[in-house]
């Protein structure tokens, strides 16, 4: 494709969102006329999405902001009951319908922060594929849908092929996932005029099978596929993973301060790229920030952290997180907005081992890890290094603010607060 005719593809190209597309020119033409109806599916496997999902949510947001079309956020109330094998080395844990429904409700909030929902032509809608998947009759589904799938071709898809090459089990229920995802596209095309499915590059095979199924099942309009890259950091680490686990988008799973810190700790080489993908800042401002060198790159990282956090947690919490970091690191103060873990006052009064305290605070995963950190000089209590792994914290450890500040390195802090 030459230069994009639509603002939508122009933005996605300039910001680095595009990995693969079934027909860029056709998608560009639809976008230029404001006629895209695009969906991304999100399975309800946890009570929060993580930052790895944010790329596709941003694509839906840019679709709407550029006037290119209508976004559909599809909740996988049905597909989650089966489990997507893509990118997994073992079968996902099957969740109960009650767990799936609870997760689904918890996921909804993040979309309202980036998409405008309503009844207008380009207003976003949120749907649940359980609406059409749950009532399916198995024999009818096999006859009407399953007959269009070649097992030979299904076995060439990465979600199946990689498991088999590594001689890892692929359950029959998982093998059916690509049929259900493909059928989602057909139902959305018929019900809502959906003509584009977007997602991560690991979903390319499933999405393309949906295009083929739509053609075979008589969908009248052309269907298209567009994927974004699965990002890694400059050092090769998977985007959205830390030593402590996933970088969750819901505050119940990860505080706004810790979310801010994740972006603040980005590698220098990633700052420009992350500003393009995870903020709405103008490209000329991003270019200016990305050009900063030496110590000045830290200012760009703070902008990245604040803008990325504002999108998900709101401007007030983003700026509060930035101020907490400033007070903690630049002024050496104990900021009240640091992540807090409550501990029974009686437990603290009786004395709690320092190793156990750091595990309870979530700064380390085990006593053994805490010991190794102490040996390397990595743990502090109230900003003082801990040298004795047998040290005990008690009421005398409380600061004048009535808390105990635990620190791992220079950037991770938790307040123990007796209740």
Count of helical stretches? 19
Principal-axis shape: globular
Uncertain runs are: none
- Give the percentage of residues in beta strands: 5-15%
Distance between the termini: 62 Å
**Overall pLDDT score:** 87
Helix content: 40-55%
Largest sheet features: 6 strands, mixed
State the secondary-structure class.
alpha/beta
Number of strands: 15
| Rg | 24 Å
Descriptive notes:
It is built from 19 helices and 15 strands. By secondary structure, the chain is α/β, with parallel strands linked by helices. It has a six-stranded mixed β-sheet with strand order 1-6-5-2-3-4, sandwiched between helices. It has a five-stranded mixed β-sheet with strand order 9-15-14-11-12. The chain has a two-stranded antiparallel sheet with strand order 7-8. Strand 11 and strand 12 (384-385) form a beta hairpin. The longest helix has 17 residues, at 297-313. The chain is globular and about 75 Å long.
Short description:
43% of the residues lie in helices and 15% in strands. With 419 residues, it is α/β, with parallel strands linked by helices.
Sum up the structure in keywords.
419 residues, alpha/beta, six-stranded mixed β-sheet, five-stranded mixed β-sheet, 19 helices, 15 strands, globular
């Amino acid at each position: 494709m030459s230069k994009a005719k639509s603002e939508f593809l122009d933005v996605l190209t300039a910001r680095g969102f595009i990995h693969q597309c079934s027909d860029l020119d056709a998608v560009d033409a639809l976008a230029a006329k404001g006629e895209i109806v695009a969906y991304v599916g999100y399975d309800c496997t946890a009570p929060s999405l993580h930052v790895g999902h944010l790329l596709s949510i941003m694509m839906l947001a840019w679709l709407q902001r550029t006037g290119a079309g209508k976004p559909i956020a599809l909740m996988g109330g049905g597909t989650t009951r089966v489990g997507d094998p893509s990118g997994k080395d073992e079968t996902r844990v099957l969740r109960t319908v009650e767990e799936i429904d609870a997760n689904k409700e918890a996921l909804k909030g993040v979309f309202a922060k980036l998409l405008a929902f309503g009844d207008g032509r380009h207003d976003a809608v949120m749907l649940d594929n359980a609406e059409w998947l749950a009532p399916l009759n198995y024999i009818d589904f096999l006859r009407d849908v399953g007959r269009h799938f070649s097992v030979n071709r299904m076995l060439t898809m990465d979600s199946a092929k990689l498991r088999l090459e590594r001689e890892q089990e692929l359950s029959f229920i998982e093998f059916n996932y690509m049929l259900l995802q493909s059928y989602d596209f057909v139902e959305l095309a018929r019900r809502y005029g959906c003509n584009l499915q977007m997602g991560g590059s690991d979903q390319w095979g499933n999405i393309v099978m949906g295009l083929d199924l739509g053609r075979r099942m008589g969908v009248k309009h052309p269907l298209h596929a567009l994927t974004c890259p699965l990002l890694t950091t400059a050092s090769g680490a998977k985007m959205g993973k830390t030593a402590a686990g996933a970088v969750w988008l819901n505050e119940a799973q990860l505080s706004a301060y810790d979310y801010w810190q994740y972006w603040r700790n980005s590698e220098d080489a990633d700052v420009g790229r992350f500003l393009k993908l995870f903020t709405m800042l103008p490209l000329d401002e991003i270019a200016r920030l990305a050009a900063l060198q030496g110590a000045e790159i830290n200012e760009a990282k703070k902008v990245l952290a604040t803008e990325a956090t504002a999108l998900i947690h709101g401007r007030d919490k983003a700026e509060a997180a930035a101020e907490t970091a400033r007070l903690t690191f630049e002024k050496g103060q104990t900021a009240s907005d640091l992540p807090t873990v409550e501990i029974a006052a009686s437990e603290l009064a009786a004395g709690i081992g320092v190793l156990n305290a750091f595990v309870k605070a979530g700064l380390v995963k085990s006593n053994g890890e805490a010991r190794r950190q102490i040996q390397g000089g990595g743990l502090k209590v109230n900003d003082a290094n801990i040298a004795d792994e047998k040290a005990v914290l008690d009421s005398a450890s409380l600061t004048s603010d009535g808390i105990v500040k635990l620190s791992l390195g220079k950037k991770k802090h938790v307040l123990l607060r007796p209740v």
